[in-house]
Write a structure and sequence with these properties.
The protein is an alpha/beta fold and about 290 residues long. The chain is about 40% helix and about 20% strand. The chain has 12 helices and 9 strands. The chain has helices spanning about 5-15, 35-40, 60-70, 80-90, 105-115, 130-140, 155-160, 170-180, 220-230, 235-240, 250-260, 275-285; strands spanning about 30, 50-55, 70-75, 95-100, 120-125, 145-155, 180-190, 195, 200-210. It has a 7-stranded mixed β-sheet, sandwiched between helices. Strands 1-8 form a two-stranded antiparallel ribbon. Strand 5 (about 120-125), helix 6 and strand 6 form a beta-alpha-beta unit. The termini are far apart. Bound molecules: S-adenosylmethionine. S-adenosylmethionine binds near residues 27, 30, 56, 102 and 127.
Length: about 290
């Protein structure tokens, strides 16, 4: 079937199937072929690439993906989109559509069964409220994923890329940068969607590192410190860490800071990933 990523084709397809948009599923469909080309160029999808697409909608990105990738598995939660996808993807034999909630899918099993355990690129233009849980699911479950290319609210993309001592730097920046390099692919205005969202979006590419960026003895302690340090932004690290979830005494925190040569009066948002790792490893050693 012809490309559906145009206002006319998208409207015709939706009308033909009497489809109704669901706000709660974050349904805004891309209608601009140029943006789609930019996204897939930026994702570096070549003929050997295996792709999992999350939330194909009516198949605007999926059509292009099937022409560039080796194989695409698209997971769509909305049952009423399945017959539409059957039509828009009818003449393509390297795509499989699965009607499921991505948060409930066992990704390791899916990759084993559908891609023979080869590394995949995950692509999605998703409702904003499930973007972070999905990214963290992909990264924390240690799934064989090369990269995650995702369209998100521009502010969230800025937080993922942020460096220490900037207003956007926080627990999300540290978590994403622990596992990935972050690249901006393209900024996307509301006008390229039907219906138009209220916010600007960005497409970013998270390239998963072979090993996390810093070596830590315990990820639980590392992420525990990160969470406590950003929990109360105005507090000094001494106060945040001694009143946080890790249950550390003030004396212990002082001893750790002194051993690491980090000033206890600093605030969490000034610490680099390396400094968080040094602190976490010192705490882990003291707990052993
Ligand atoms: N990729 C299409 C496009 O760019 O035109 C559609 C994007 S639309 C913003 C988001 C899509 O994700 C919708 O089709 C929606 O039904 C689907 N979706 C929402 N939550 C989902 C979930 N938990 N699992 C799988 N798909 C989901």
């Amino acid at each position: 079937m012809d490309r559906i990523a145009s206002p006319k084709k998208t409207k015709e397809t939706i009308a033909k199937h009497n489809f109704h948009f669901s706000k709660s599923l974050g349904q805004n469909f891309l209608i601009d072929q140029n943006i789609i080309t930019k996204i897939i160029d930026g994702a570096e999808i070549g003929p050997e690439e295996n792709v999992i697409e999350i939330g194909p909608g009516i198949g605007s990105l999926t059509q292009e993906l099937t022409e560039r990738a080796k194989k695409v598995v698209a997971i769509e939660i909305d049952k009423s989109l399945i017959p539409i996808l059957k039509e828009t993807l009818q003449d393509r034999d390297n795509v499989e559509v699965i009607n499921d909630d991505i948060l409930k899918v066992d990704l390791n099993r899916l990759i084993r069964e559908k891609f023979d355990n080869g590394a995949v690129t995950v692509i999605g233009n998703l409702p904003y409220y499930i973007t972070t849980p999905i990214i963290m699911k992909c990264l924390e479950e240690k799934v064989p994923i090369k990269a995650i290319v995702i369209m998100i609210q521009k502010e969230v993309a800025d937080r993922m890329k942020a460096k220490p001592s900037t207003k956007d730097y926080g627990a999300l920046s540290v978590a994403v940068q622990y596992y990935c390099d972050v690249e901006n692919i393209v900024n996307v205005p509301p006008s390229v969607f039907i219906p138009q969202p209220k916010v600007d979006s960005s497409v970013i590419r998270l390239i998963v590192l072979k090993e996390p960026r810093v070596k830590v003895i315990s990820e639980e302690i590392f992420f525990g410190i990160v969470k406590d340090s950003f929990g109360k932004r105005r507090k000094t690290l001494l106060n945040s860490l001694s009143s946080g979830g890790l249950n550390l005494s003030k004396d212990m925190v002082r001893a750790v800071f002194s051993a690491c040569g980090i000033d206890e009066k600093r605030r969490g948002e000034t610490l680099s990933l390396q400094e968080f790792a040094i602190l976490a490893n010192e705490i882990a050693k003291k707990r052993q």
